[in-house]
Amino acid sequence: MKIETLYTLNNNLQNDKLSLLYQGNFSDDITERIIDISETSLNQQTDLQKIGKKVSLLLAECFQNIVRHGDFSHEVRSAGIFVTRNIGNSYYISSANLIHNNDIPDLKEKIEMLNQLSPEELKQLYLEVLTNNQRTNRGGAGLGLIEMARKSGQKLEYDFETVDNEHSYFYLQIKLHAPSANMEGASIPIGIAKDFHRIMAEDNIFLVHKGDFSSHTIIPILRMIEDNLTYQNETAKNKKKLVHILIEILQNISKHGYVENNIREGIFLLGRRYNHFLVYAGNYIENEKVQNLRNYLNYLNRLNRNELLEVYKKTLTSGIMSSTGSSGLGFLNIAKDSLHKLDFSFHPIDDKKSFFGLGVVI
């Protein structure tokens, strides 16, 4: 994975107030963390607070749909993907999971039928299925899809992509709009979620998060990552080291990122290469800080491991300020724990700010 991937993803998500893209274990713990992150973002937006409960319910239902109907016995490309995006006053929830090709006709027929029903007809169908206990051998009785159609008030978008003779990816997208949402130009096609799935699978990225990285948003992100590491059976040592680096990187965005409209916007992604973790993070910084930061990071990259440890000890005891305007311990911590030299880049945005990207191998 290259540092430019971070900048490309940030550009693709530039209009999002919140973006969360995840592929990996689909558990109740992960569901809870994603809901926490979404609720934190929604609670800061007056126009979206009215749909906050619906968003949480749809997030949970979408996850349960993946767990119920996904085929996790076949490892091709990736297990699937879950995407949630807040753009303007609209919310998009997309998912993908492997299914058997034999299930496609029935699933397509169900969704097409639901998309033809009025809100009153959807409610009636929901009550009929619920009271008659019409369950399928997959355990869902279609209630999940019915609920998604009911709660969103929009047609369900879907697509299928063939993987092999037996399996396909089933893509599903739900749209939810606040009462005040301006619908002009608000529609995001499901093909965008498919593109994100391809990028994340090719680069083995299992988490992308873009949004406000103020201090109160960091905790649910860290908890979600810790839950994921638990299911990956990571050793305590590797888990501790990764979380330590993540805290340093996220705090750097939280403390030193460019503030616009009281928001410290940033993006980070987490991936794997062989047995190592890749951590990439980016945020906007003031243009006048770029050269000093570039010089400081180049300085750290010239040092070997022993020299980094020595500088770290001296900085820790003396508290000498670096040219970046702080003690520099954050970047020092990151550099000494990284297996390779720091990967970084700067992209001018306008006359006030630039996009700063940082990549670390652990």
What does this structure look like?
The chain is α+β, with helices and mostly antiparallel strands and 362 residues long. It has a domain of 200 residues: Histidine kinase-like ATPase, C-terminal domain (Heat Shock Protein 90). Helix content is 45%, strand content 25%. The protein has twelve helices and eleven strands. Strands 1, 2, 3, 4, 5, 6, 7, 8, 9, 10 and 11 form an eleven-stranded antiparallel β-sheet that branches. Helix 2 packs antiparallel against helix 8 and helix 5 runs antiparallel to helix 6. The longest helix has 21 residues. The radius of gyration is 22 Å and the shape is elongated. It starts with a helix and ends with a strand. About 2% of the residues have low confidence.
